[in-house]
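Memo to structure team: turn this sequence into C-alpha coordinates by end of day. - J.P.
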Amino acid sequence: MPEMTPPGTMRAAWIVARKDLAIEFRTRTAFLSALVFALLGVTIFYFAWDSTAVSASDLAPGVLWVIFIFAALLGLQRSFGSELADHAIDGLLGAPVSRESIYLGKALANLVFVCGVLAVTLPAVVLFYNLPLDRGVLALSGVAFLAAIGLVAIGTLFSAMAVNTRMAELLLPMLSLPFFVPIVISAAQSSARLMAGRPVSEAWPWLRILVAFDIVFLVACTLAFPYTLDE
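Reply from structure team:
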Protein backbone atom coordinates (compact mmCIF):
# COMPACT_ATOMS: atom_id res chain seq x y z
CA MET A 1 0.00 0.00 0.00
CA PRO A 2 1.30 3.51 -0.76
CA GLU A 3 2.38 5.48 2.27
CA MET A 4 -0.12 8.18 3.19
CA THR A 5 1.35 11.62 3.73
CA PRO A 6 -0.07 13.85 6.51
CA PRO A 7 -2.13 16.81 5.35
CA GLY A 8 -0.59 20.24 5.07
CA THR A 9 -1.08 22.95 7.67
CA MET A 10 -4.07 24.68 6.08
CA ARG A 11 -5.78 21.44 4.98
CA ALA A 12 -5.38 20.02 8.49
CA ALA A 13 -6.74 23.26 9.94
CA TRP A 14 -9.80 23.00 7.71
CA ILE A 15 -10.36 19.39 8.81
CA VAL A 16 -10.27 20.42 12.48
CA ALA A 17 -12.58 23.38 11.83
CA ARG A 18 -15.03 21.23 9.87
CA LYS A 19 -15.14 18.71 12.72
CA ASP A 20 -15.90 21.40 15.31
CA LEU A 21 -18.54 23.04 13.13
CA ALA A 22 -20.21 19.68 12.47
CA ILE A 23 -20.43 19.02 16.22
CA GLU A 24 -21.86 22.47 16.88
CA PHE A 25 -24.32 22.14 14.00
CA ARG A 26 -25.67 18.91 15.48
CA THR A 27 -26.07 20.24 19.01
CA ARG A 28 -26.43 24.03 18.53
CA THR A 29 -26.37 24.45 22.30
CA ALA A 30 -23.49 26.93 22.49
CA PHE A 31 -24.66 28.98 19.51
CA LEU A 32 -28.26 29.24 20.68
CA SER A 33 -27.24 30.12 24.24
CA ALA A 34 -24.89 32.84 22.96
CA LEU A 35 -27.55 34.15 20.61
CA VAL A 36 -30.23 34.29 23.29
CA PHE A 37 -27.80 36.03 25.66
CA ALA A 38 -26.92 38.62 23.01
CA LEU A 39 -30.51 39.42 22.04
CA LEU A 40 -31.61 39.52 25.67
CA GLY A 41 -28.76 41.92 26.45
CA VAL A 42 -29.70 44.21 23.55
CA THR A 43 -33.32 44.24 24.72
CA ILE A 44 -32.45 44.99 28.35
CA PHE A 45 -30.11 47.84 27.41
CA TYR A 46 -32.76 49.29 25.11
CA PHE A 47 -35.51 49.43 27.70
CA ALA A 48 -33.11 50.82 30.31
CA TRP A 49 -31.96 53.55 27.91
CA ASP A 50 -32.96 57.17 28.53
CA SER A 51 -32.86 58.81 25.11
CA THR A 52 -32.95 62.29 26.67
CA ALA A 53 -29.70 61.68 28.54
CA VAL A 54 -27.62 59.68 26.03
CA SER A 55 -27.97 59.69 22.26
CA ALA A 56 -28.37 56.42 20.39
CA SER A 57 -25.10 56.85 18.47
CA ASP A 58 -23.20 57.31 21.74
CA LEU A 59 -24.76 54.33 23.52
CA ALA A 60 -25.02 51.76 20.73
CA PRO A 61 -21.26 51.05 20.24
CA GLY A 62 -20.79 50.28 23.94
CA VAL A 63 -23.88 48.07 24.00
CA LEU A 64 -22.75 46.18 20.91
CA TRP A 65 -19.25 45.37 22.09
CA VAL A 66 -20.05 44.61 25.72
CA ILE A 67 -22.74 42.14 24.70
CA PHE A 68 -20.71 40.65 21.86
CA ILE A 69 -17.63 39.98 24.01
CA PHE A 70 -19.52 38.04 26.64
CA ALA A 71 -21.60 36.18 24.06
CA ALA A 72 -18.40 35.22 22.23
CA LEU A 73 -16.86 33.92 25.45
CA LEU A 74 -19.66 31.36 25.68
CA GLY A 75 -18.55 29.90 22.36
CA LEU A 76 -14.83 30.16 23.06
CA GLN A 77 -15.33 28.24 26.29
CA ARG A 78 -16.62 25.20 24.42
CA SER A 79 -13.80 25.29 21.86
CA PHE A 80 -11.57 22.87 23.77
CA GLY A 81 -14.12 21.83 26.38
CA SER A 82 -15.80 19.61 23.80
CA GLU A 83 -12.55 17.66 23.44
CA LEU A 84 -12.49 16.56 27.08
CA ALA A 85 -15.17 13.89 26.67
CA ASP A 86 -13.63 10.42 26.26
CA HIS A 87 -10.16 12.04 26.15
CA ALA A 88 -10.72 13.21 22.58
CA ILE A 89 -8.02 15.83 23.09
CA ASP A 90 -5.43 13.03 23.29
CA GLY A 91 -6.51 11.72 19.89
CA LEU A 92 -6.36 15.22 18.44
CA LEU A 93 -2.86 15.82 19.77
CA GLY A 94 -1.74 12.38 18.56
CA ALA A 95 -2.90 13.04 15.00
CA PRO A 96 -0.15 13.51 12.38
CA VAL A 97 -0.73 17.26 12.14
CA SER A 98 1.11 20.22 13.57
CA ARG A 99 -0.03 22.01 16.69
CA GLU A 100 -0.35 25.17 14.63
CA SER A 101 -2.90 23.38 12.42
CA ILE A 102 -4.97 22.50 15.48
CA TYR A 103 -4.92 26.11 16.65
CA LEU A 104 -5.81 27.53 13.25
CA GLY A 105 -8.62 25.00 12.83
CA LYS A 106 -10.07 25.79 16.24
CA ALA A 107 -9.74 29.51 15.58
CA LEU A 108 -11.47 29.19 12.21
CA ALA A 109 -14.40 27.31 13.75
CA ASN A 110 -14.61 29.90 16.52
CA LEU A 111 -14.55 32.70 13.96
CA VAL A 112 -17.53 31.19 12.15
CA PHE A 113 -19.29 30.86 15.52
CA VAL A 114 -18.76 34.45 16.64
CA CYS A 115 -19.54 35.84 13.19
CA GLY A 116 -22.84 33.96 13.31
CA VAL A 117 -23.65 35.61 16.64
CA LEU A 118 -22.49 38.96 15.32
CA ALA A 119 -24.62 38.61 12.17
CA VAL A 120 -27.71 38.67 14.39
CA THR A 121 -26.53 41.03 17.13
CA LEU A 122 -25.33 43.84 14.85
CA PRO A 123 -28.60 44.24 12.89
CA ALA A 124 -30.51 44.04 16.19
CA VAL A 125 -28.52 46.96 17.63
CA VAL A 126 -28.95 48.98 14.42
CA LEU A 127 -32.69 48.29 14.41
CA PHE A 128 -33.31 48.94 18.10
CA TYR A 129 -31.41 52.24 18.14
CA ASN A 130 -32.50 53.36 14.66
CA LEU A 131 -28.97 54.22 13.60
CA PRO A 132 -28.39 56.33 10.44
CA LEU A 133 -25.95 53.96 8.77
CA ASP A 134 -26.98 54.04 5.10
CA ARG A 135 -23.65 53.59 3.29
CA GLY A 136 -21.79 52.69 6.49
CA VAL A 137 -23.32 49.23 6.85
CA LEU A 138 -20.58 47.46 4.92
CA ALA A 139 -17.85 49.41 6.71
CA LEU A 140 -19.37 48.58 10.10
CA SER A 141 -19.59 44.92 9.13
CA GLY A 142 -15.92 45.04 8.17
CA VAL A 143 -14.99 46.54 11.54
CA ALA A 144 -16.96 43.84 13.32
CA PHE A 145 -15.25 41.11 11.29
CA LEU A 146 -11.78 42.49 12.02
CA ALA A 147 -12.59 42.70 15.71
CA ALA A 148 -13.88 39.13 15.65
CA ILE A 149 -10.54 37.93 14.23
CA GLY A 150 -8.62 39.50 17.09
CA LEU A 151 -10.98 38.26 19.78
CA VAL A 152 -10.95 34.73 18.38
CA ALA A 153 -7.15 34.66 18.06
CA ILE A 154 -6.77 35.52 21.75
CA GLY A 155 -9.72 33.56 23.05
CA THR A 156 -8.77 30.32 21.30
CA LEU A 157 -5.30 30.37 22.85
CA PHE A 158 -6.55 31.02 26.37
CA SER A 159 -9.34 28.48 25.96
CA ALA A 160 -6.63 25.86 25.40
CA MET A 161 -4.72 27.06 28.44
CA ALA A 162 -7.76 27.06 30.73
CA VAL A 163 -9.48 23.86 29.60
CA ASN A 164 -7.69 21.51 32.01
CA THR A 165 -8.07 23.74 35.06
CA ARG A 166 -10.72 23.30 37.72
CA MET A 167 -12.23 26.76 37.14
CA ALA A 168 -12.00 27.01 33.36
CA GLU A 169 -15.25 29.04 33.13
CA LEU A 170 -13.75 31.71 35.39
CA LEU A 171 -10.16 31.54 34.19
CA LEU A 172 -10.92 32.09 30.50
CA PRO A 173 -12.53 35.55 30.97
CA MET A 174 -9.88 36.56 33.50
CA LEU A 175 -7.08 35.72 31.07
CA SER A 176 -8.76 36.98 27.90
CA LEU A 177 -10.42 40.23 28.87
CA PRO A 178 -7.21 42.24 29.49
CA PHE A 179 -5.97 41.27 26.03
CA PHE A 180 -9.35 42.08 24.50
CA VAL A 181 -9.02 45.73 25.57
CA PRO A 182 -6.96 47.09 22.62
CA ILE A 183 -9.16 45.23 20.14
CA VAL A 184 -12.37 46.48 21.72
CA ILE A 185 -11.16 50.08 22.06
CA SER A 186 -10.21 50.22 18.38
CA ALA A 187 -13.44 48.54 17.28
CA ALA A 188 -15.60 50.73 19.52
CA GLN A 189 -13.97 53.95 18.36
CA SER A 190 -14.33 52.94 14.71
CA SER A 191 -17.92 51.78 15.05
CA ALA A 192 -18.90 54.87 17.07
CA ARG A 193 -17.94 57.11 14.18
CA LEU A 194 -19.71 54.94 11.63
CA MET A 195 -22.86 54.64 13.75
CA ALA A 196 -22.96 58.44 14.02
CA GLY A 197 -23.12 58.63 10.22
CA ARG A 198 -19.60 59.99 9.79
CA PRO A 199 -17.45 59.09 6.76
CA VAL A 200 -15.21 56.04 6.82
CA SER A 201 -12.14 58.29 6.61
CA GLU A 202 -12.73 59.40 10.22
CA ALA A 203 -12.65 55.79 11.39
CA TRP A 204 -9.60 54.85 9.32
CA PRO A 205 -6.92 55.64 11.96
CA TRP A 206 -8.61 53.30 14.43
CA LEU A 207 -9.08 50.69 11.71
CA ARG A 208 -5.34 50.63 11.06
CA ILE A 209 -4.70 50.05 14.76
CA LEU A 210 -7.28 47.26 14.74
CA VAL A 211 -5.64 45.55 11.75
CA ALA A 212 -2.21 45.85 13.38
CA PHE A 213 -3.42 44.24 16.61
CA ASP A 214 -5.10 41.46 14.63
CA ILE A 215 -1.86 40.61 12.85
CA VAL A 216 0.22 40.73 16.01
CA PHE A 217 -2.17 38.63 18.08
CA LEU A 218 -2.80 36.07 15.35
CA VAL A 219 0.89 35.46 14.72
CA ALA A 220 1.86 35.51 18.40
CA CYS A 221 -0.95 33.17 19.46
CA THR A 222 -0.21 30.73 16.62
CA LEU A 223 3.44 30.54 17.67
CA ALA A 224 2.59 30.26 21.37
CA PHE A 225 -0.09 27.58 21.04
CA PRO A 226 2.23 24.52 20.72
CA TYR A 227 3.50 25.24 24.25
CA THR A 228 0.08 25.40 25.89
CA LEU A 229 -0.84 21.70 25.67
CA ASP A 230 1.14 18.68 26.76
CA GLU A 231 0.93 15.29 25.12
